[in-house]
């Protein structure tokens, strides 16, 4: 029962499973079938039985349905067989129709293919035309680029390249020819850079070669402008200037001629004015700058340009070794430098950034230091003042030219002050030779004049004023010699020469006046003074010449005030202006006079010595000749003639040494004293061993002539017997021996009122011993004569006493 109960329970379950199998997709049958095996035992078997029953039921249903539809199927087959026959007929017809259609369509197909091919060709042509229209501008631009390259229009070529790259190449970048063009452009750019750089190098070489021509033109223009300005200034000065001294007047006609010449030169050169653009083609620089700017490599170009120009600057600044020998050497040096900086100034103003003001200032400062060093070194070799003056003019023109282009030139004018000192030195050397020649050619005698014309000629050369001389009738003589007006003229020429250097230095008239006075002072105190002293010391200059030199220096000294007025006039300085520098002519000529006076005394004493050396005394004579020695009389006559010359010395209350008679008195006193000393030395000469009384008497005659000469007042102005006192030592000594007044001498020795106060015991002893020896040798029989024996004893006694006096003097000393 239980089994029946379980069997009843599983039947509905098996039916459910079969329904699921029938209704479920085959892929999902697995879980359903698994549930069959998961149920009670024997469920599988029962399920299979149930499944077989279900299959049999379905087969029965299928058979029923087939039986139901079989007649309809048979009918359909029968109809289909009928249709097959019609279908075959239709097939034949279709095939025939197709064949006919194919035969009819073959020509259409051929024509259609031709039309298609033409349409394709037409489309291709249209495409080609479109592409060609796109490529033609590129090719035209590239062709234009080639033409520009051939025509050396490199800046335009670079612009064309930019258009190709930015506009045209992007449109045809897919074509191979475009790629070839794109690849070729960098090479073209490099070619342009190289070509433009080559042009720049040629330009740099060209301006290096032509810089002297550029500088010459610039300096010429500056000179024309300067000449015109100076001419106008001189015209104004002529109109408003002051009249100068009649001896120192500058011809005004010369100023008018110079002004006229300046205007004529200005008119002649007005149409010939050239600029730096006329002389130099700067297009290579512009092209190269633009090209490098377009290429974005402007810095490289600027660095290269500046580097090369600095090298050229060093070459330009390097002078030739013999530059100092001629002015042309300096001119070439300056024109090259001016040409260099004129080009730089032009580049500075017409380009943007190629050169800057800081760069040109740096380059100029470097060049200026080099220029100053070169000029300082080479100018030191110049010994010709004319060359130094031309160098100064070149430096001034050089400075003015570059100053016109904005370059600072103050240091050049400072250098000119150094060169001015050197110029003055060369002038002093030149004028030293001029003065020497004047002194050599002078005859040192007063200037004779025989008529009014000659008088005016001398007055026009030298400012001499003497009312007494003007009143005298012709012929007459100027007191000075010919060298005085020549010296005065040469001093003025020196002032003119010094003024030439001071001009154009951009200094005030007061400063120029001060410079001229200092230069003139150097000429007077150093050059002229040295020449005068050398002249005075020359052996061939005699006493007469020395006297004339004193006269000449006096007149030159008086002319110094005219020289001061002359300097004031040529510098246009007001007379009321207080000058810190005065001319030192007074001290210069005073020193020369003192030297001449000293040389007079020296030469006079030398002449006396020459006469004294002619003395030929017989020191052993027993009796005198009764007349003075011939050499002494000749000497006295010589002194008289010499002192007569001294009466021509001029009057100058400011200089006592040059007053009439003062020099003569000093010379006369010096001559007498020297003559007295020479005669005394002759008596006391150590080589003279013996002197007889006769020789002493003869010597006394000569001294008497000397005393007579002194008392004859050879030079006026001596008071009393002042001049005779020069021989007082000789007189007292000779009187002592001729009178043989030893008792008085020995008794009064040392007394102020002694008759033989000027006789020195040592001198008396020396002379007495010489006479003692003479007495011994010449008086062989003196011992047999009582008077002679007494005299000999007296001499011995006097000698002893004199020796005691000499020894006492030595101990006291």
Automatic annotation (TrEMBL):
**Domain of life the protein comes from:** Eukaryota
Show where the Exocyst complex component EXOC6/Sec15 N-terminal domain sits: 50-219
| Keyword set, alphabetical order | Exocytosis, Transport
Residue ranges of domain Exocyst complex subunit EXOC6/Sec15 C-terminal in the record: 412-770
The record's annotation in Pfam families points to:
EXOC6_Sec15_N, Sec15_C
The record's PANTHER family line, in alphabetical order, gives: EXOCYST COMPLEX COMPONENT 6, SEC15
Q: What is the similarity comment for this entry?
A: Belongs to the SEC15 family.
Entry function: Component of the exocyst complex involved in the docking of exocytic vesicles with fusion sites on the plasma membrane.
Any idea what this protein is called? Answer: Exocyst complex component
Q: Which organism is it from?
A: Felis catus (Cat)
């Amino acid at each position: 029962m239980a089994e029946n109960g379980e069997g009843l329970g599983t039947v509905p379950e098996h039916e459910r499973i079969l329904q699921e199998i029938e209704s479920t997709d085959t892929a999902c049958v697995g879980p359903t079938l698994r549930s069959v095996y998961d149920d009670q035992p024997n469920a599988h078997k029962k399920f299979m039985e149930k499944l077989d029953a279900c299959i049999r039921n379905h087969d029965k249903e299928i058979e029923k349905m087939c039986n139901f539809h079989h007649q309809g199927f048979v009918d359909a087959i029968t109809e289909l067989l009928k249709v097959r026959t019609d279908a075959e007929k239709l097939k034949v017809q279709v095939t025939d129709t197709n064949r006919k259609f194919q035969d009819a369509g073959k020509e259409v197909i051929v024509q259609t293919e031709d039309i298609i091919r033409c349409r394709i060709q037409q489309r291709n042509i249209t495409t080609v035309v479109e592409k060609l229209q796109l490529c033609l501008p590129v090719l035209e631009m590239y062709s234009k680029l080639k033409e520009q390259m051939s025509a050396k229009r490199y800046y335009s070529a670079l612009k064309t390249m930019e258009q190709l790259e930015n506009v045209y190449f992007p449109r045809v970048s897919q074509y191979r020819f475009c790629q070839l063009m794109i690849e070729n452009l960098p090479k073209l750019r490099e070619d342009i850079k190289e070509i433009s750089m080559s042009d720049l190098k040629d330009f740099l070489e060209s301006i290096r070669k032509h810089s002297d021509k550029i500088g010459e033109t610039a300096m010429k223009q500056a000179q024309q402008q300067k000449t015109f300005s100076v001419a106008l200034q001189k015209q104004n000065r002529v109109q408003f200037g002051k009249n100068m001294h009649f001896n120192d007047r500058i011809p005004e006609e010369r100023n008018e001629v110079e002004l006229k010449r300046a205007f004529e030169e200005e008119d002649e050169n007005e149409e010939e004015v050239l600029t730096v653009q006329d002389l130099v083609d700067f297009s290579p620089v512009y092209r190269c700058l633009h090209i490098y700017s377009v290429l974005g490599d402007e810095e490289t170009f600027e660095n290269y340009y500046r580097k090369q120009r600095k090298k050229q600057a060093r070459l330009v600044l390097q002078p030739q070794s013999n530059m100092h020998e001629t002015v042309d050497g300096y001119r070439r040096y300056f024109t090259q430098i001016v040409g260099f900086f004129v080009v730089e100034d032009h580049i500075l103003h017409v380009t943007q950034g190629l050169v800057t003001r800081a760069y040109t200032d740096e380059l100029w400062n470097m060049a200026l230091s080099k220029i100053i060093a070169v000029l300082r070194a080479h100018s030191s070799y110049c010994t010709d003042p004319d060359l130094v003056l031309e160098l100064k003019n070149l430096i001034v023109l050089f400075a003015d030219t570059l100053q016109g282009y904005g370059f600072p030139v103050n240091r050049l004018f400072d250098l000119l002050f150094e060169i001015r000192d050197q110029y003055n030195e060369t002038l002093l050397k030149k004028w030293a030779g001029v003065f020497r020649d004047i002194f050599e050619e002078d005859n040192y005698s007063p200037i004779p004049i025989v008529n009014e014309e000659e008088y005016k000629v001398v007055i026009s050369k030298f400012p001499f004023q003497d009312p007494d001389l003007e009143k005298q009738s012709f012929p007459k003589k100027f007191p000075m010699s010919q060298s005085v007006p020549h010296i005065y003229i040469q001093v003025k020429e020196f002032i003119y020469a010094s003024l030439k250097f001071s001009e154009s230095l951009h200094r005030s008239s007061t400063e120029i006046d001060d410079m001229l006075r200092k230069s003139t002072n150097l000429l007077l105190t150093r050059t002229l003074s040295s020449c005068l002293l050398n002249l005075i010391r020359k052996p061939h200059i005699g006493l007469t010449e020395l006297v004339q030199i004193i006269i000449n220096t006096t007149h030159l000294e008086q002319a110094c005030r005219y020289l001061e007025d002359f300097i004031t006039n040529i510098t246009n300085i007001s007379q009321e202006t207080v000058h810190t520098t005065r001319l030192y002519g007074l001290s210069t000529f005073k020193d020369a006079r003192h030297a001449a006076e000293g040389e007079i005394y020296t030469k006079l004493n030398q002449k006396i010595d020459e006469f004294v050396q002619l003395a030929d005394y017989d020191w052993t004579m027993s009796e005198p000749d009764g007349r003075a020695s011939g050499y002494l009389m000749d000497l006295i006559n010589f002194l008289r003639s010499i002192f007569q010359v001294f009466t021509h010395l001029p009057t100058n209350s400011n200089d006592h040494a040059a007053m009439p008679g003062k020099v003569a008195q000093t010379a006369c006193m010096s001559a007498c004293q020297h003559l007295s000393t020479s005669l005394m030395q002759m008596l006391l000469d150590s080589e003279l061993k013996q002197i007889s009384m006769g020789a002493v008497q003869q010597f006394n005659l000569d001294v008497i002539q000397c005393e007579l000469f002194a008392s004859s007042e050879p030079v006026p102005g001596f008071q009393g017997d002042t001049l005779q006192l020069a021989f007082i030592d000789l007189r007292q000594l000779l009187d002592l021996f001729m009178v043989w007044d030893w008792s008085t001498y020995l008794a009064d020795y040392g007394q102020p009122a002694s008759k033989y106060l000027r006789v020195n015991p040592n001198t008396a002893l020396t002379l007495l011993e010489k006479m003692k020896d003479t007495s011994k040798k010449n008086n062989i029989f003196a011992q047999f004569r009582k008077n002679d024996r007494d005299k000999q004893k007296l001499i011995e006694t006097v000698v002893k006493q004199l020796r005691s006096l000499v020894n006492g003097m030595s101990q006291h000393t």
